Fold this protein.
Amino acid sequence: MPEAVLLGGEQTTTAVEWVVFIIAATTTLLGSFGVIMARNPVHAALSLVGSLFSVAVLFLNQGAEFLAAVQVIVYTGAIVILILFVLMLLGIDTEEDLEDEPLRGQMPVAVGIGVLLTASVFALTQLVGFDVVTGTPEVTAAIRDDMPNINQIGRLLFTDFVVATQLAGVMLTVAVVGAVVMARRPREYQPIPEPESMDAPLSLDPTDQGADNGAEVAD
Amino acid sequence: MSLLVTGSAIVAQQGDPLLFDVDLTAVGIVVGKVLVIFAFLLVATMFMVWFERKLISDMQNRIGPNLAGPFGILQTLADGIKFFFKEDLIPDRAQRRVFILAPFLSFVPAFLLFVVIPFGGDFNDGNAGVVTIFGRETFLQVADPPIGVLFILAMSSLAVYGAMLAGWSSGSKYPLLGSVRQSAQMISYEAAMGLAIIAVVVKTGSLSTHDIVVTQAGEGLGGILPNWGVLLTLGVPFVIFVIAATAELNRPPFDLVEAEQELVGGFHTEYSSIRFALFFLAEFMNTVTMSAIFVTLFLGGPAGPVLFGPGWLWGIIWFALKVFVFLFMFVWFRATLPRLRYDQLMDLGWKVLIPLSLGWILLLVALDLAQDQNWNLFAVGIGAAVVFFCAAMLLRAAVRSGQATRHTLEVPD
């Protein structure tokens, strides 16, 4: 249990933590590849769930239960919305819809940025040492040992970082209000045209095709 | 300030004492507890299916299942065996892998939720529910993480996936409509449910389900009433939680997800055989688990007086009795209340439950602060009532004016 390790003040990485790390890191990577490789948009979104869930396991492995729980709560809910967007608003839940690329030439740019970021991480580890960017206990351990990290985060958020917390709250409120305003924007009123076949007389006689080909009759 | 201090006072011995020293016995005990929970949940779910059918029959002046076993109690078992031998159909247009995955996605969170529920133990005289098994002290609860309540919320947000993916992967219209309804409904009511839970967390000062029960086991108002969450939070969050949980479970009167008259069977229309049985089981298991969460948060969990014999046994008995009350309540709802319309459902969630629960949290915190600072509680109560009334009127005015402008905008002359 990460919590027991945390409270005991023990700072070494145990065998269990290694096994959990390797499994969770592998599934994180597999999920991330799934996001960009999957042909089907819903499958891609599901891979994202898997990837983010594995990140939550990694957080748990570091003794950060609160982050893990919030990771699951926030992202699973968000991805449900994402899938709903895919299904309902964009209507691209089949593979054929993704054939033509909306952003031309984005792939080389993405590869370039990816290489650049990886190189900078490596450069940082060479310059400053691995402890800064990796999750070793010396870097990521709890600030205090005598209370669970929920209490510590709560204290910090409402004392040292209270301005940042409130600014984030304001920003979210603005986003919500903005979303409502956008959704409520008045649209051009367009009456739905009556189907022409409605004008044709309705016939119960199966030999009379008038009801079916109303348009031709009207011509 | 004192809110934070009371939170840290109980920290010294966080978590299950069993896990302070992990060895083979401890692992064995944990595995044993998992098996007991597994068996209990399966039996409770089977009982719930039978109980629901029998009770509804009583309320509708019918007999109900009465052939398999005494009082028809083995009917669920017979149905389960039948499901196993049915042909398993996968529609042609289904997304095969997701279609197969979906029933498990709705089944597993229903199980996982139960691991943080304290289901027994003696909470009298400062015992804190510790029992001794094979010479080791432990809680009668599989896990007691410091984030227990957040774990409940996380699992219930995972539970959305099962039904939503089932509906989408079926490649059929009615299941898709059912699953879209379901995800919209669950997301809407999750907010109200979370806010109702926060009220309990504020009053008990902990996110650990065990600590919440320990706090509720204490002496209540005047030494007569229990110190239960429903009284601590002054009732309203409990009512909000009842409504939101019923919606979250997709049970009547919030069962638009599988409204038979409109959607055939909702998200599981295309499922057959054991896959359908998994959905069916998950639904009833969720009902049992949600009742257990009710009991843990609002009715003191397994805490209760010991009449005679061992204390831990009475914990289990009180827990089972309290859960039973909620199971009865859910069946009663189903037999009594007609289904809501979709706009009524959304209005209730967004315009009533969420503002009310937000306001109630502020009220509880204000009262706590007043007590802490020795302010006049009466004056604070009056002030809070005035603020509450003004906010409600403001919200009503906003909703009215919003409706008015929408009507004039959409249909110009």
About this structure: Chain A touches chain B at residues 1, 3-4, 7, 40, 42-43, 46, 49, 65-66, 68-70, 72-73, 76-77, 80-81, 83-84, 87-88, 93, 146-151, 154-155, 184, 186-187, 189 (CB under 8 Å).
